[in-house]
TrEMBL record:
Keywords for this protein: Cell membrane, Membrane, Transmembrane, Transmembrane helix, Transport
Keyword Isomerase carried by entry: no
Family annotation (PANTHER family): OLIGOPEPTIDE TRANSPORT SYSTEM PERMEASE PROTEIN APPC, PEPTIDE ABC TRANSPORTER PERMEASE PROTEIN
Species this chain originates from: Myroides marinus
Family: Belongs to the binding-protein-dependent transport system permease family.
Segments traversing the membrane: 20-43, 162-188, 195-217, 223-242, 273-295, 330-353
Keyword Cell membrane attributed: yes
Species classification: Bacteria, Pseudomonadati, Bacteroidota, Flavobacteriia, Flavobacteriales
Domain ABC transmembrane type-1: 160-350
Entry protein name: Peptide transporter
Membrane topology: Multi-pass membrane protein
Amino acid sequence: MSNTSQSYTQIALQRFKKDFWGVLCFWVIICIAITATFAYFIIPDQSKNANAGDLALRSQAPGFTVTTITIPSNTSRTWSEMWFGKEEVAKFIPVSEYHVQQDTIYYKNYSNQPQLEEVKSLALSQFGDASISDIIKEKKYWLGTDNQGRDYLSRLVIGARVSLSIGFVAVLISLVIGITLGAIAGYFGGKIDAFILWLINVFWSIPTLLLVIAITLALGKGFWQVFIAVGLTMWVEVARVVRGQVISVKEQQYVTAAHALGYSDYRIITKHILPNCMAPVIVISAANFASAILVESGLSFLGLGTQVPTPSWGAMIKENYNYILLGKPYLALLPGFAMFVLVISFMLIGNALRDALDVRK
């Protein structure tokens, strides 16, 4: 039986490889996931949530470069800070001009009108053994800065981590609840099935976004609250599909044979029934992943999702949508485009998996 199952898996994999858009979207998601995972190894802003900025640099165009005086941080990066950002980062002062005289740096803060800025000074002794090249640096913002003077590229990459995390956790929660309730309802039937089906219909009748908002308000605003709220609204479709699959599969002869051999209900469900019901669940999970990203972005846009200073694509759109009319539309369009690419990739992968796992082909 395992050989037959393996051959079906190989056939499905071969079908998937022939789907150009499915394979392309798979690698797009892999690239985004790798970039988000190793974000703090590649982004310019190493601070936690990429939140280091200067108001003097706000709303600068892509490719903007500024000279900075960097004050080194005395603390080294810990293992946790390598993956989640530093709490205390090296402070930098953007300057429009500077000169070094003896043991002092004289400079003017960066401004659109540098002639109005007064000259300030810093003693080189406070930089320790650092050389001038370590102190004076050119800082480049590849995608410009936002309205708080923060590096926009860094915020965009960290936003991808938030979206992927919310999708993964929400889908995981929905699978645990949906598969459990669907399998119990389909296998045991009777009053248990009637009660779970009633529960499914109750959740099904409530608009998803309204239910998420209600759960979010009950649990409070925050990062993990959004994970739970989105996950608790996506188990319904999984439960319905699993219930129908279990009702169909439990009538097969190998399930009857398992009953005759005295296997427990738990073993029959987990070892014999559920493995043969996973194909449609995988397809639904891909669609739910995309839906979770959209729901989280919608909540963040409404101010009910991830909170400041955690970057979220929905929150970034909300912060910058006014710039669409003020001549810098890319500040709102870039996170929207990133969201579009990620969501459409999951939807196309779901379609490719549906075709690959279709036993009628």
